[in-house]
Write a sequence for this structure.
């Protein structure tokens, strides 16, 4: 039982408190990682009933895993969170309708493929219509400034060494970004390709919503697709997906054959900036002023935070956002479930951005991109938001410099 | 532990709910998360209240006292002695919403804070003012200043800058009657050091609702060095040599092999592989001074057989080295489910001996021990690592703890240097203290909290008060005890001659001196003449140790060295009941029990007669006097490197003198005759019978009151401008008139003493007055002592 390992490791030193975004807002131990671990312990022991009220804090948690980076004892907090969310699911606490619909939708690769086709065709109309939607965070973020489609068709290498896990929303709404990532790798001399569409969604959102069975099915499909590709490495452009792919072995505790396959799979998971850096990619310098929002799971889950900064420092006038390592409130479908908390966190971020007033906020995750875009909308700042791949694509070294 | 429904009387719950609404937490899961600290002990509170100000706290204390319900104050719950665990249920007062920096007075180098302010973020708040707050317990990213004060927390920097209590200049407290008031400590302290009684009392005597803390100029340059040794013994020998060489690093931390392994698993620090122990040594100050210091450190390290010494001034690298050290307690959690953390302190030269004793005890009880420590001040944290279910583990841990307590007490140390006693180390109290001390501490608790509602079961043991025990092994103490007991029997006021209390014993390896209370400061200075050490304070008016202690006298050196309370480590004294009490130890960090001996500072003899005391020494300073023209309305900024200041004023013009280490700043002249001027003023004061000694609050709000006061005053004899202390000559009637008039005009006069007997013209505020009355009358039988002191003063 992995939640027990986390409980056993925790010495209650409280080093996680100052890095927790919900504790920073609530100043209440119940909204802190240490509190959530202690509560899980009481529930596991049967000393505390698992009711929607006692479990509410696991829904409130952003799942950003900043507490894991801050933890000297090596507690894997995500195990506690997933335990809590699973209990919530069992207690019959369904996610709100919009989030539930999204989770149902993402289960099926077929639905995703249809959505992608429909989006390609109707996105113009959809975006115009979407402006009449109520101004909730995702709606604003999605309808204002999504990345352009890639101008030309990218050809996948047949015998690829590196494959892109397309993701779900990523492939529908950020299809151009996905294509540009493959293109950037190929231009750096890497044989790269996109994983076939039947791999579908990685299942991270389901796992985080406590739907562990669905998450397991999604993981199996993804592992099988990767094994068929014969590639040595796999990456994703969504931090939450990448970190979840690395965690696949946890889904198969006690299932030896799948566990072994998951371990092999997890060891192949990489991220785009470190892949590009490994292959000598150096972005072109410009006078653009930039700042960076860490993708929580890329930083705290995969340990990648130096590489994107190094790329930005090489290629722009970079200023660190004081709270760059702290979650922006997007957190998967969090801004659908807890728009109030997400909004409060975002407001603090926008204040910091106002002090820096950069030309660009660069992120490494589509959710953060949407969240930031909606935060900046109406702030009066001319700042734009983009994914680091789209940023780097604009700053490819000139051909003659190659 | 099971989740129980709150058994608080429903009427009490309604009273709290009416006032606090959603800031009252009653649901089991809401309370469960306030049931622990970092020790692993769990106990569920019956309610959690989140106060937003002193009135909220007073309301809770009054209500709780009425119903006899325990109240436990809680900051961040990062304590290591179960201090904030509500073991008897009741109400947890969580200060998470009282977390504001109230004011910053850069010129006076003081800040007012609420208790929920977290320690580490102060760094960024104070940096724009060029200031920093020195005490830095390892938990400083998490722990709150309220908790730091309640435990009298130390931290790595204590070796140079001292512990939390030394940085407190005032506390705003709420007592069990709901009275809210200030307890001033140091220059403005107008009576016994009641603030020191609250500091380190672990929430058992009062609730702290605000504090004024001293802050310091940020050192311009910091260098962190890593000094690895193949064996532990090399590391401790190195520490002794550093101390003996008179090098005072900002930190001098010890980490053993097992702890290094645990930290390296986390991978934040990059300590050298193959080292049996590493020392983390930090030097701060002017760049060239730090560089020279580092060269000396390197030379000593080389001589002592250290492995390769690395040093860095890069902030990110320094952070990494420190993050490793600061997380050590939690990092060893990777090796075992449970860790029993010790917090012993021994005189510095016994460090090696104590480490060896710890290893031996661990071996004897079949335990694994990982040790870190603040080697520079003799404070060690051996962690016994174990897992539940090991054979006889509870007994073995308990026995090993007890043995460690015995060993450190035998070496003249303390069972807790900075974590506190809580409930975790209660069983060590009778090892460290005799029945006399235990009984008095318990009596103090009974006097200030008769219903026992404040954090019951923590910090002290509920021992009975015992009759005076005859002392046999201490001649002077026995003789004075005899005099007092005889006086009690005869009903007379005792005729005690403290000049019998002589003897000066310097301990250069521990940077301390033990001084008979009857000695003079000149004799102390003479005893230190041949050493590289000195006592960094010279009181202004009093030449004998006991008088300056009992009258809280201080001199120009208060600027860098504060007052006696910063330097007093231990006192042996005789109470009005004839008990001989020894409190404190010859260690700079000691949070075991109440700091009763500090009550004597400024007590005018009401709490006891000092026999001897142990003082902290400092390396002899190379500073020199400088001066410039001065008038009372100058807004003086303390120059960098200044360690002493006084001013001279003749009604038309004046000079201000500073003793400054390092370069003379532009605009200042060297002053070869400052010492002569100071001596002459001292003689003026000593010869006069009618000195009025005034102390103003020098805060931003009251800064104008110094020149205003000057308008009322006759010509001053001497001025200490940064304490806003002015000494003038005035007969008693005009002194009383003057004080009344100045206060009526709004001058922030906090302390005014008149005449040879330092007659206090400003009474104590509440609740200090009530506390002082309770303690003098009920605990120390001080009225008899007071008579003695008044007569002694008159007789001089």
């Amino acid at each position: 039982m992995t939640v027990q390992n986390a409980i056993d490791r925790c010495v209650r030193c409280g080093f996680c408190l100052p890095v927790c975004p919900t504790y920073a807002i609530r100043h209440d131990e119940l909204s802190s990682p240490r509190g959530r671990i202690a509560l899980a312990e009481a529930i596991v022991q049967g000393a505390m009933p698992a009711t929607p009220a006692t479990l509410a804090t696991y829904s409130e948690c952003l799942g950003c895993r900043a507490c894991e980076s801050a933890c000297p004892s090596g507690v894997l907090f995500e195990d506690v969170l997933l335990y809590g969310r699973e209990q919530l699911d069992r207690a019959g606490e369904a996610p709100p309708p919009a989030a539930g619909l999204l989770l149902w939708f993402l289960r099926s690769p077929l639905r995703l493929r249809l959505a992608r086709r429909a989006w390609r065709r109707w996105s113009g109309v959809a975006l115009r219509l979407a402006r009449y939607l109520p101004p909730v965070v995702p709606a604003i973020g999605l309808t204002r400034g999504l990345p352009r489609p890639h101008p030309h068709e990218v050809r996948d290498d047949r015998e690829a060494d590196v494959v892109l896990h397309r993701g779900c929303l990523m492939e529908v709404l950020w299809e151009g970004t996905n294509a540009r990532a493959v293109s950037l790798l190929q231009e750096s001399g890497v044989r790269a390709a996109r994983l076939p569409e039947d791999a579908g969604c990685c299942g991270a959102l389901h796992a985080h919503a406590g739907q562990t069975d669905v998450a397991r099915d999604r993981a199996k499909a993804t592992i099988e697709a990767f094994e068929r590709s014969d590639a040595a490495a796999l990456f994703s452009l969504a931090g939450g997906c990448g970190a979840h792919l690395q965690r696949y072995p946890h889904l198969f505790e006690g299932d030896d054959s799948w566990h072994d396959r998951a371990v092999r799979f997890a060891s192949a998971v990489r991220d785009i900036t470190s892949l590009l850096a490994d292959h000598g990619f150096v972005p072109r310098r410009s006078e653009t002023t930039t700042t960076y929002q860490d993708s929580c799971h890329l930083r705290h889950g995969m340990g990648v935070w130096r590489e994107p900064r190094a790329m930005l420092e090489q290629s722009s006038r970079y200023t660190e956002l004081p709270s760059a390592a702290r979650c922006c409130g997007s957190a998967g479908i969090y801004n659908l479930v807890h728009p109030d908390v997400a909004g409060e966190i975002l407001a603090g971020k926008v204040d910091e951005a106002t002090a820096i007033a950069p030309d660009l906020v660069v992120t490494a995750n589509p959710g953060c991109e949407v969240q930031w875009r909606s935060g900046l909308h109406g702030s009066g700042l001319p700042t734009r938001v983009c994914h680091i791949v789209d940023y780097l694509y604009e700053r490819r070294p000139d051909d003659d410099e190659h | 532990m099971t989740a129980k429904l709150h058994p608080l009387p429903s009427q009490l719950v309604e009273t709290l709910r009416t006032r606090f609404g959603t800031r009252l937490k009653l649901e089991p899961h809401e309370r469960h998360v306030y049931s622990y600290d970092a020790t692993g002990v769990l106990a569920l509170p019956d309610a959690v209240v989140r106060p937003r100000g002193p009135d909220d706290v007073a309301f809770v204390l009054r209500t709780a006292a009425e119903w006899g319900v325990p109240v436990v104050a809680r900051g961040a719950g990062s304590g290591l002695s179960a201090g904030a665990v509500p073991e008897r249920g009741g109400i947890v007062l969580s200060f998470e919403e009282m977390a504001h920096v109230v004011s910053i007075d850069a010129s006076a180098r003081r800040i007012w804070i609420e208790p929920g302010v977290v320690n580490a973020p102060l760094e960024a708040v104070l940096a724009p003012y060029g200031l920093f707050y020195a005490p830095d317990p390892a938990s400083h990213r998490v722990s709150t200043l309220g908790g730091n004060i309640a435990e009298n927390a130390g931290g790595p920097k204590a070796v140079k800058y001292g512990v939390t209590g030394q940085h407190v200049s005032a506390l705003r407290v709420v007592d069990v009657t709901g009275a809210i008031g200030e307890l001033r400590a140091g220059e403005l302290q107008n009576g016994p050091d009641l603030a020191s009684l609250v500091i380190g009392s672990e929430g058992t005597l009062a609730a702290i609702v605000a504090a004024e803390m001293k802050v310091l100029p940020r050192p311009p340059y910091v260098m962190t060095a890593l000094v690895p040794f193949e064996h532990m013994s090399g590391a401790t020998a190195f520490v002794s040599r550093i101390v003996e060489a008179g090098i005072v690093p900002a930190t001098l931390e010890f980490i053993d092999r097992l702890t290094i392994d645990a930290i390296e698993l986390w991978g934040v620090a990059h300590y050298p592989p193959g080292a049996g122990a590493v020392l983390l040594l930090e030097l701060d100050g002017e760049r060239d001074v730090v560089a020279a210091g580092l060269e000396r450190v390197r030379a000593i390290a080389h001589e002592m057989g250290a492995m390769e010494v690395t040093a860095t001034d890069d902030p990110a690298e320094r952070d990494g080295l420190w993050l490793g050290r600061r997380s050590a307690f939690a990092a060893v959690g990777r090796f075992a489910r449970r860790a029993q953390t010790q917090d012993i302190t021994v005189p510095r030269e016994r460090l090696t001996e104590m480490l060896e004793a710890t290893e031996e005890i661990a071996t004897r009880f079949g335990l694994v021990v990982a040790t870190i420590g603040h080697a520079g001040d003799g404070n060690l944290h051996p962690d016994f690592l174990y897992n539940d279910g090991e054979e006889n583990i509870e007994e073995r841990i308990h026995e090993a703890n007890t043995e460690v307590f015995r060993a450190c007490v035998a070496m003249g140390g303390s069972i807790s240097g900075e974590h506190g006693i809580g409930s975790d180390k209660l069983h060590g109290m009778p090892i460290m203290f005799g029945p006399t001390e235990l009984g008095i501490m318990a009596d103090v608790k009974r006097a200030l909290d008769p219903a026992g509602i404040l954090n019951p079961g923590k910090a002290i043991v509920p021992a009975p008060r015992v009759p005076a025990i005859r002392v046999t092994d201490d001649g002077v103490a026995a003789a004075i005890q005899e005099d007092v007991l005889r006086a009690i029997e005869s009903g007379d006021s005792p005729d005690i001659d403290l000049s019998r209390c002589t003897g000066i014993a310097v301990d250069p390896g521990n940077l301390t001196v033990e001084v008979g209370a009857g000695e003079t400061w000149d004799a102390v200075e003479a005893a230190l003449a041949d050493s590289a050490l000195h006592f960094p304070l010279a009181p202004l008016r009093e030449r004998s140790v006991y008088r300056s202690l009992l009258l809280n006298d201080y001199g120009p050196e208060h600027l860098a060295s504060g007052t006696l309370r910063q330097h007093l480590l231990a006192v042996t004294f005789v109470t009005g009941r004839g008990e001989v009490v020894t409190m404190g130890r010859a260690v700079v960090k000691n949070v075991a029990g109440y700091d009763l001996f500090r009550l004597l500072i400024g007590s005018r003899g009401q709490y006891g007669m000092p026999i001897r005391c142990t003082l902290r020494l400092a390396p002899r300073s190379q500073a020199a006097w400088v001066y410039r023209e001065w008038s009372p309305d100058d807004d003086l900024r303390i120059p960098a490197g200044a360690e002493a200041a006084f001013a001279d004023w003749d009604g038309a013009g004046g000079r201000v003198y500073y003793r400054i280490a390092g370069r003379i700043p532009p605009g200042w002249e060297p002053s070869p005759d400052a010492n002569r001027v100071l001596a002459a003023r001292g003689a003026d004061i000593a010869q006069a019978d009618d000195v009025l000694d005034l102390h103003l609050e020098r805060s931003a709000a009251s800064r104008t009151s110094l020149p205003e006061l000057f308008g009322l005053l006759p010509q001053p004899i001497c001025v200490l401008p940064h304490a806003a202390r002015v000494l003038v000559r005035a007969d008693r009637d005009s002194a009383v008139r003057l004080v009344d008039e100045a206060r009526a005009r709004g001058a922030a006069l906090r302390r005014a003493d008149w005449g040879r007997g330092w007659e206090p013209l400003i009474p104590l505020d509440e609740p200090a007055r009530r506390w002082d009355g309770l303690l003098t009358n009920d605990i120390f039988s001080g009225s008899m002592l007071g008579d003695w002191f008044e007569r002694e003063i008159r007789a001089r």
Chain A touches chain B through 29 residues (CB under 8 Å). DSSP finds 23 helices and eight strands in chain A. Chain A has a mean pLDDT of 88.
